[in-house]
Each structure stands twice: as structure tokens, then as C-alpha cells.
Design goal:
2 copies of one chain form a homodimer.
Chain A lengths: L8 E7 L3 E8 L4 E8 L6 H19 L9 E5 L2 E3 L4 E4 L11 H9 L3 E5 H12 L8 E6 L3 E7 L2 E2 L31 H4 L1 H14 L16 H9 L3 H25 L3 E5 L7 H14 L2 H6 L1 E4 L6 H13 L5
Parallel strand pairs in A: 1-4, 4-7, 8-11, 11-12
Antiparallel strand pairs in A: 1-2, 2-3, 5-6, 8-9, 9-10
Helix pairs in contact in A: 1-2, 3-10, 5-7, 6-7, 7-8
């Protein structure tokens, strides 16, 4: 009995550095409702497990979900996940959670299997099954935020690599003579289109240009990529120029991915994609001009569709795929 | 009856821009003997088919191979191969062969299926099944020559991409402010470690350095990467420096592939890999220093083992995989 034939409900857990989102979902991926609690990473995973369980139980009760009918629960977090041991093994934001059997602890208490997945892999899977990746078998997913993450759907399967560490698309070299990245490399894609570097470039534009700009009213430390989108929408020329330049730099990274993967679709997520075609159209133009002609002519470059829900949807569907029936 | 249980013999065809190699092979991949004929690409694929058939028939007769027991024949060439139509669709060296049903024509005359594959994909598959990639499920294969090609074994399968054009690892950006490549991109990996650019850098080293070097005796237009290996082996300091620098540039490309794929092994082939650790050890050092720590600590960077036979072996094994039993 495949999981998508009979409709049932379960929960998903998206562990971020600041907040943990707990959602009630249909087994087809639709989010019914969600709660958010603070992560408080420093208190460790045992404390978090208790608070997650309280929230899940309240959610199940509120939505009238039978815990016995959940089949499986999906959970995701940033970092490298060891799928064999179902634990996170390298996560800068959750250092004290590494190697902790959090998923197993939750599974024991809930009475259903809980599967852990890397957050960007989960996001890619969610966009593939329910979002902007639907219907394609070869998808490169990129998420632009403080960091630049990647997830790969190759030949109709999530690609995790030999040790669960694949997909670090933000840490591919774009400029071998460039500046140091937060990773051990230099001149990475993240070093060009990560949030801090977009702000850095904005400040440089403001300094070098005499154009009037509402961005000048912001304190540099308060500036975020979303301010660019708002300003550009209001006709701000500096904001529009920075977004165009960011899109071109993104495109230069995408050229490599098009030549490497020959994907059907590239799905770009993260806050700055609210800028839409101001960001993506310059990226598409660079890809059309600089990637190999056949794959460049075939690839679609599209914004993600599921927003903040993508990871929890993907983690849930991955869990149900591993455990489609109960028992 | 799996193809590797009962031993039988077949032939493989490796179509290069200059020569076509026709080999008699065991179904496990071992080359028994081989013949080489000129490609004469300008005469077109019908002419080539006739000459290939004559050579195959002579080879079968000489080796006492029953054409009825061959199961399938593998063939490879440079360019993008459409696996559905079993034709090459984009091949700069074989323009008049594009969309020609050469494989089907040979199959009709030989009475066995003939499968066409991209040459670097075939090489990667050959190294995976019979060479330096044995036993691993996640392999990045790179071949350094005039061009820099790539082949990907991901999750234990050859990855071709959505339209057979994946794996162009030589055409990933290493320097977004770099020089134009032969492809539409700029600053590609090939633009740094392709044969012509290695020679270009050698000439620059010779010009800038006063060190004695036997490379000074060569005419620039006659210089090839193999001269560097020979000179370095004889203690030439300029040759050793160029090889080390080439290895470091190669390593800077590999950093991206390690972060993207988290491979178990990177297999490097092509003439210049005769330089061995003079080339590969600097590459390994760069990867250990600049790639993400977990995948960097796990990946092996090794020279290819099958040399010029890799592609014909891989093409044959791919053909037999698609057609393991007769009829």
C-alpha cells in the first residue's frame, strides 16, 4: 500500500539555529498547521527533545491526529547527517548535538520511526516532490541566505554522497584569487552571493555612487538583502544595480552546475529570491551566454515555491519514503 | 544468467578524432587484442562503418570469436550522445557524424546490438568496473589532455544528466576574472590544466627564470606535457615547478568537486598523469587544505589505471550491461 494512496497525517520537525518548527502535514506533503519554539541550542538536545515532544503532543491533540497512524516522522537540521546512524555529525550551529541520538530518543517516546536529514537536502526533496522541482528528475537546488547551501536530485534520487556531505554548492570556487570564505576555501560562490557579501557590495556601491538611494537611510549593521528587494521595487537604482550584479555572480556559479549536472531545472530559494526576476533574469542571461550550449538551452532557472516549509515537507516525505507503512 | 558468470568474448569500438581502435575483449573487461585504423572523419560515418566492419571481421577471425556469441558491442566517441536514439548529437571532431545512425548500421550488419556512449563516460565506467575506481560507489573521473573531460559514477551508477551532457568538469569556473576558454565560459579548469595552457605556463616559467633547463632545447610548438614528466624525472627544476603548479591548480578544481560530490575517490587520467605524485601530491595537499574537512579527509585522489583502454573497456561493459544475454 503506497503512502500516497491512503491519506494520513504525521508531523515534521525542522531544527534551525534559532527556532524549531514543528508542523502537522498530510502524507502527500501539505502543511496543515505549524508551531515554532526557540531552539536554545546551548541547552543541548535532551532539553530540546522534551520541548519538542510537548509541542508535538499539543499539535496532535489540537489537530485530532492519532499518533498510532503517523507511520514516520521526518526531522531536518543544518550539518552533515550520517544516514546509517541517523545522527548529525558536523553542525557548526548545533555543536553539542553532534552524535546525539535525538531522532532515536524522539522515536522511542513517540512510538514511530524518526528520520533525520540535512536541511538543504530536505528542502531540495520538498521542492522536488511538492514545489518548483515537480516532474523533473535532474534538479540542482540552491538556497541563498547567510550561507549558500545546495541539494541535488540526480536521476530521480536525492544525492547525499559517500558520507552524507555532498551538495555544498556554495563552497565551489568562483575566484581562485579571491578572498577567504568561512569554509577553508577561497573565492567560494557563498563569498559572492551570501547575505553578508551582498550587503558588503551594497555599501561599496553606495560609497562609489552619488545616486540618491533610500538604502543610505539604513545603518550598515541593520542592512539585509530583503531591503534591496523593497528598495528596488520602489525604484531605487542602487538596489536594482546590486541585485542585477548579484544575479550575474549567481549565474557565474550556475554555469558550472549546468556544465557538471546538465540539470532540467535549477531551483533557487532563500530570502533574496523574493527579488524574483531582478535576481534570476541576469543569472539566466549569464548561463545562456557562458554554459555549454545544449544544457544551457534546456535548463530552467526558477524560484523555489515552498518557502520556509520546503525543509519540513521534504524531511517528512523522506521519512515516509523510508517507512511507507506502519510496523 | 549474469554476463560475468559465463565468460565470452565481444568487440568494442573507440572512435577518436584521429584513430578508431577496435578491440577484442572478455565480457569482464579484459582486452585480448586491438587494431587501430584512421578515423578519416571527413569521409563521414558510412565510409567509417565499412572500414570498421572489415577490421572487426578480421579480428573475430584471427581470435576465433563466434559473432553469434558476442551479446552486444560497445562503441564510444567524443561529444554528447543521445542514449534514447543511440546517436551522437554534438561532437566538434565528428560534425558530419552527428545524428547519423552509425551504431544501428553496425548492429544490422553484425547481427548484435551496438550501444554508443560518450568517451569520457565510457572511460569513467571502465575505471570504475576494472580500474582505479573498483569497489567505490561515488567516483569523480577527470581526464587531462588537450581538453579536460569528466565522468561521474554517483550512487553506483553512471550519471549522464538530463540530456546526456553532464560531466563537463573541465568547464567549471575557477577564475571568474580569467581568460576565455574554448567553450563559451571564462577561467575554466581546462583553461588552467589543459595541455596547451600547461605548455603556455612552461614557456612563461622558462622566460622568467634563469635556471638551466633541458626544456629550453625544445621548440615551443613541439613541447607537450610529457616532456615535463621526462625532464622532471631527469632532475629538471623548471619542469618540476611547472608540474607542482599544475597539480595545485588541478587541486583547486578538485576542491569544488569534493565539496559538491563527497566522492570516495577521484580518478585522474590522461597523458600528464604519467607524472604521478609530482602532479597528484600537490593536488591532494590543496584538497586537504581547502575542501570541507569531512569529505576532504575521506577522499582518495588516484591515477587512472587502464590508460588508453579505459574507454573501450567501459563502452563494452556498458553495452553488455544493457544487453547481458543474447536475443
Amino acid at each position: 500500500m503506497p503512502g500516497d494512496v491512503v491519506k494520513f497525517r504525521t508531523v515534521g520537525i525542522d531544527v534551525g539555529g534559532t527556532n524549531i518548527k514543528i508542523a502537522a502535514l498530510w502524507n502527500g506533503g501539505g502543511v496543515i498547521s505549524a508551531e515554532s519554539i526557540p531552539t536554545r541550542a546551548e541547552r543541548g538536545p535532551v532539553d530540546a527533545a522534551e520541548r519538542i515532544l510537548v509541542t508535538i503532543r499539543a499539535l496532535l491533540q489540537r489537530e485530532g491526529i492519532d499518533p498510532g497512524g503517523m507511520h514516520a516522522v521526518g526531522m531536518d537540521c543544518a550539518g552533515i547527517v550520517d544516514p546509517e546512524r541517523n545522527v548529525v555529525i558536523d553542525s557548526p550551529n548545533l555543536r553539542s548535538w553532534e552524535n546525539d541520538p535525538l531522532a532515536q530518543r524522539l522515536a522511542d517516546r513517540l512510538g514511530v520511526p524518526v528520520y533525520l536529514e540535512n536541511d538543504v537536502n530536505a528542502m531540495a526533496y520538498g521542492e522536488w516532490r511538492c514545489g518548483a522541482g515537480r516532474g523533473a528528475d535532474h534538479i540542482v537546488c540552491l538556497t541563498l541566505g547567510t550561507g549558500v547551501g545546495g541539494g541535488l536530485i540526480l536521476d530521480g534520487r536525492l544525492y547525499r554522497g559517500a558520507h552524507g556531505a555532498a551538495g555544498e554548492l556554495g563552497h565551489t570556487t568562483l575566484d581562485l584569487r579571491g578572498a577567504s570564505c568561512t569554509c577553508p576555501n577561497i573565492g567560494c560562490l557563498e563569498r559572492h552571493v551570501g547575505a553578508a557579501y551582498i550587503v558588503e557590495r551594497t555599501l561599496r556601491h553606495l560609497q562609489e555612487s552619488a545616486a540618491p538611494s533610500r538604502l543610505r537611510d539604513l545603518e550598515p549593521q541593520d542592512m539585509a538583502p530583503r531591503d534591496l528587494t523593497l528598495a528596488a521595487d520602489a525604484g531605487d537604482p542602487v538596489a536594482a544595480a546590486v541585485l542585477r550584479e548579484t544575479g550575474e555572480l549567481l549565474g557565474k556559479g550556475l554555469v558550472s552546475f549546468v556544465n557538471i549536472f546538465n540539470p532540467e531545472r535549477i531551483v533557487v530559494g532563500g530570502g533574496i529570491t523574493k527579488a524574483g526576476d531582478r535576481l534570476l533574469e541576469p543569472a539566466r542571461q549569464i548561463v545562456r551566454r557562458h554554459a555549454m550550449s545544449l544544457p544551457a538551452s534546456m535548463v530552467e532557472i526558477v524560484p523555489a515555491e515552498l518557502g520556509d516549509d520546503a525543509a519540513v515537507v521534504g524531511a517528512t516525505l523522506l521519512a515516509l519514503e523510508q517507512h511507507p507503512t506502519r510496523g
